[in-house]
Amino acid sequence: MKSERRFSLDKILAAYFPDASFNSAIPFGSGHINDTFLITNLAGEKYLLQRINHQVFQDVAGLMNNMERVTRHLQQKLAGQTGSRFTTIQVIPNAEGKLFHQDESSNYWRVITFIPNSVTYDLVTSEDQAYQAGYAFGYFQQLLSDVPGDTLAETIPQFHDMKSRFAKFDAAREIDSVDRVKSAEADIEFALSQRKEMIAWHELVTQPDFPRRVTHNDTKFNNVLLDRESQQAICVIDLDTVMPGVIGYDFGDAIRTIANTAEEDEAELTKISVNLDYYRAFAQGFLSESGQQLTTLEKQSLHYAPNYMTFIMGLRMLTDYLQGDIYYKISDTNHNLRRAAAQFKLVAELEKSADQTQQILTEIFQS
Ligand SMILES: Nc1ncnc2c1ncn2[C@@H]1O[C@H](COP(=O)(O)OP(=O)(O)O)[C@@H](O)[C@H]1O
Ligand SMILES: [Mg+2]
By CB count within 10 A, which of 164, 202, 325, 326 is most buried? Predict the structure, then answer.
């Protein structure tokens, strides 16, 4: 979903640092949504310049407001904690004091502080990494449990709303614009078999007495910065999707990627299962920080969250397949179908491991 537009880095940098001369701006990182550049001025100070994906995030002002409020809150909370290794990115306004900059071709840009001596990894390869990921997102969650003022903007409306996702899926099946329903019958059938239970979970977590929290909503391992030396989590990044949500969104989406034994689009379905060691380690890290603040209802909701988040991704991929691949980038015509099948297989595997994962959560809550 990257829009290829021309832009002049010099002009953009001048909008941020009219007096400073920057001697380098180089492409940086392995992100898939935003274009990121590392910029270094003559004094050696480093920042990151990021082009915001305006196609995915239509409310850039709302998004940047969220980001500024969240990072300012994190900064204040962390300042009161001596010896914490945890830190936060900060938003650097442009010379006019605006949180983002719009260039002549309607690209949107932001500048954030660069966290030195940090690394990210796409895949978790040890229990300790799974724990660090859990710790980072759990701590982030806990630090944001008391953000004052109005609720944050919902930057992607109805992002995790199962009813609305099913409505789009139903419409895509009905229209069948690219004649693919026939080739997706097995996965469509699986999706329909899950509808009732999935919608019931969403109703549970959106009932009036269920706590709304500030959630990250993109809890992948490569959105946690680790200290290069100690390999401990030091910062949560990629705050575009930070908005009001429920605890299970962050827990569930992290388990979906971190405890999956295979890639998101694995074609060989037998390779897909739940890595219980990573599940346990992530859950321990996550709940060590966020556990105390959870209500009984929230604790009960957590177990089904990975099934929900994995399923909703599969449903979105399958819908995209039926619509002719308009949202996700694909490498071949069956890519979205393969992705959906892989997500649905993981849902089935999560069902199979349900007794064991419930046991893991129960033990953590009792400890
Ligand atoms: N403030 C930062 N300090 C150091 N590295 C960062 C920082 N922000 C992002 N990165 C690196 O750049 C990559 C992409 O940034 P991210 O904000 O996650 O964009 P995307 O939305 O494209 O994933 C990250 O995975 C990380 O390696
Ligand atoms: Mg990222």
Answer: 202
Judge whether 52 and 91 are in contact, CB under 8 Å. Answer: no
Residue type, 126: S
Residues ≥6 apart with Cβ < 8 Å to 182: none
Is there an atom of ligand 1 within 6 Å of 53 CB? no
232 lines ligand 1 (CB under 6 A): no
pLDDT digits (tens, 9 = 90+) for 317-330: 999 999 999 999 89
Distance between CA atoms of 195 and 262, rounded to whole angstroms? 25
Contact by Cβ (8 Å): 261, 339:
no
Give the nearest ligand 1 atom to 222 CA: 25
Q: Ligand 2 centroid vs 238 CA: distance in angstroms?
A: 5
High-pLDDT (> 90) share of the chain, % = 80
Asked whether 32 lines ligand 1 (CB < 6 A), one says yes
Q: Does the beta carbon of 219 sit less than 6 angstroms from any atom of ligand 1?
A: no
State the pLDDT at residue 41. 82
Closest-approaching ligand to the CA atom of 219? 2
pLDDT tier for residue 30 given thresholds of 50, 70 and 90: low
CA of 122 to the centre of ligand 2 (A): 9
Cβ of residue 33 lying under 6 Å from some atom of ligand 1: yes
Q: Could you report the per-residue pLDDT of 253-310, keeping only the tens digit for each? A: 999 999 999 999 999 999 999 999 999 999 999 999 888 899 999 999 999 999 999 9
Give the closest residue to 51 by CA, choosing from 68, 39, 34.
Answer: 34
Domains of the chain, CATH where assigned:
9-115 (3.30.200.20), 127-366 (3.90.1200.10)
Smallest CA-to-CA distance from 212 within 134, 146, 139, 287 is with 146
pLDDT in the model for residue 190: 98
Which ligand has its closest atom nearest to the C-alpha of 67?
1
Q: Is the CB of 288 under 6 A from ligand 1?
A: no
